[in-house]
Structures are given as C-alpha cells and as structure tokens.
Design brief:
With 329 residues, this protein is of the alpha/beta class. It folds into three domains: 2-171, no CATH class; 173-239, no CATH class; 245-328, no CATH class. Helix content is 33%, strand content 18%. The protein contains nine helices and 14 strands. α5 crosses α7. Mean pLDDT is 78; it is low at 11-26. InterPro entries: Cu_polyphenol_OxRdtase, Cu_polyphenol_OxRdtase_sf, Cytotoxic_necrot_fac-like_cat. Keywords: Hydrolase, Metal-binding, Transferase, Zinc.
C-alpha cells in the first residue's frame, strides 16, 4: 500500500484559501513522479490529510475532485495528525495490511517517524520515502542536517506528540461495553484493592484482541500508546496509580519475582508486601490467579495454576492465612 502524506504538502490549508486546485495539482504531480521513480505504480493507496474545522466538507470535496484521476483507496482526514494517522491505521488493519510506504516531504520525515513509533508496532514494515525536492529544498535540507550534526539535539516535539496522541486516545469511546471489574468477597477489600477485568471497556479494536487489551508486543497490532490508554482507564476505574502497575512476564514456568529482589527476565508469578504496588497476571487460554494473605499483608498474582505452591513458598505464607481466587479466561 502507498500512503501519501498531504499534510506535508500543506495542501488543505491552500484549499481553504483558493477556488481552484492548481497548486494542489502541482503537488500531486510530484507525488505521481515519486510513485513512478520508486516503482510503486502497481500498488494502491490512500491520501492522508488534516482537515480544518470550518472547511472540512469543502476541503474534502475539492481534494477528492483533484484526486479523481488517480486510483486510490480514498482520502483519510481528521482534525489532528494523531487522529488522521490512527484512522489510517484502522483502514490498513481492516485490509490486513502490514507492509506499506509513506510518501512525504523531507521536513516532516523525522516528525512522522515519531508518530509512527507511537501508533504502530514492529509487526508493520513500513518505509518513509521523501518526495522529490527542488534545488532550494535540497540546499535547505543540507543546511539543516549540518546544524543537526553540530551538537546534541533535544527534540521538543516528542513531548508534544505524546501529549497529542494521549489526548486523542482519551477522547475515544469505549468499545464492546463498559469497563467492568469483578471482585471476590473472600479477599478483604479494606486491605487489598483487587479485582478481575473483563474483555470490555477499552479502545483496542483488533478482532483478535479484547477491547481492554493490556499487553503490546511486536507480534500484535495494538501499539503501546493504546495499551497505555487502556491501563489509564482501568486505573481510573479501580483507583490505583498506573505508574505502580506491574504485570508478570509469562514464561509458562515456575519462576516467581519477589519484589525487592532482582527481577528475572521472565516469570509466571509476582509477590509483594509493598503498599501501593499493583501486581497483575494476564489471562487468555490460561487462568490468572490472585493471592492475598491478610495476616502478613502480602499479595501476589500468577499465570495459570501450577505455581500455587511456589508462590506460597516464596512469600513464606501459611496455607491457613492465605487465600487465592481464580480469574476468567
């Protein structure tokens, strides 16, 4: 797939000021030349742009008119770049696309890459290809690269991008129902904040994941930014600090991390006696378990059931004072 980043060309701001598409057409000719040069003619694609709130309908109509002779999957537009790129990702996921190229101007290449790193995982294989440059643009780029190499560069855009993405994701509605936390009456709630989540209440839209997915990896379509937002919603509903959240790193074994001791690379159980710490275990085809000892003020979580004796041993808890509960799968 080809994605043409028209935000780079500032085409939409031009459309709000002019009544013809001559300048936009000139930019699109550059796009077509880039497609030909990079041997991408056989691939279909999308045009991506940001729309202005006061002209969004007019803008899109004029843009689609300018693109009528160019085979493409359509125009993807939203009011912020984070929203636009997320909508573009949804279309790619609907089509099962994992490999694509983005055509854009050189000025925005590093900026767009930062957005991509937040909203895409390593499952996707993409390439950012610069559009053709004029002689003046080439000189400007060379000058900019020279200044960048002169010393350490602190990019102020990173924090702004993260904030923009976070604000956008926070604005999305929950999918597949409300966020629900199931609790056990046998675990004393005045000592232990505890519960089991269900599959609803988050923003993850991939058909292979629950909407409240809390795990991101290079093999999944859910990026860290989405998982972080799901965790934020869970923390808000349950009443804990998301910065204190620790989930086990599954290895389908008997390794247990006792917090305060060196952390193993992977483990199926986690135990703590520290106040304010949140421990969690994922559940899919295996069952998550939570443990609580109200006498010793110790709690833990484990993946599946074969670690129960190990977890109890690691926290030196007696079976008479400890209680455990099975989660769903």
């Amino acid at each position: 797939k080809i994605i043409v980043d028209l935000v780079s060309l500032e085409s939409l701001s031009l459309l709000s000021e002019i009544h013809n598409c001559s300048l936009l057409t000139l930019s699109l000719l550059e796009v077509i030349e880039s497609i030909r040069t990079n041997d991408l003619r056989s691939q279909s694609g999308y045009f991506m742009c940001c729309r202005t709130p006061n002209h969004e309908r007019k803008d899109k109509e004029q843009l689609e008119k300018a693109l009528k002779d160019i085979p493409c999957g359509g125009v993807v537009a939203a009011e912020t770049y984070a929203a636009t790129l997320y909508a573009m990702k949804q279309k790619l996921d609907e089509d099962g696309v994992e490999k694509f190229v983005v055509l854009l101007s050189w000025e925005r290449k590093s900026l767009v890459r930062k957005y991509m790193e937040q909203l895409f995982t390593r499952l996707y294989r993409y390439e950012l290809i610069e559009l053709p440059m004029s002689s003046k643009e080439k000189r400007l780029k060379k000058s900019w690269e020279s200044r960048s190499k002169a010393g350490p560069h602190v990019d102020p855009e990173v924090e702004r991008i993260q904030k923009e993405i976070s604000q956008f994701l926070e604005s999305l509605p929950s999918l597949k129902g409300d966020l629900t936390i199931l609790k056990s009456s046998l675990i004393p709630g005045h000592i232990f904040l505890h519960g089991f989540t269900t599959r609803t209440g988050g923003i993850s839209y991939a058909s292979t994941l629950s909407s409240l997915n809390l795990f991101s990896s290079s093999k999944r379509r859910d990026p860290p930014a989405v998982v972080k937002e799901n965790l934020r919603r869970l923390a808000h509903a349950a009443g804990f600090d998301p910065e204190m959240y620790h989930s086990i790193k599954v290895n389908h074994g008997s390794d247990v991390w006792v917090m305060g001791q060196p952390q193993p690379e992977s483990y199926d159980g986690i135990v703590t006696n520290q106040r304010g710490i949140v421990v969690a275990a994922p559940g899919a085809d295996c069952i998550p378990l939570v443990f609580a000892d109200p006498v010793k003020k110790v709690c833990g979580a484990a993946h599946s059931g074969n670690q129960i004796p190990v977890v109890l041993t690691r926290w030196s808890s007696s079976s008479t004072s400890a209680t455990s509960r099975l989660g769903g799968c």
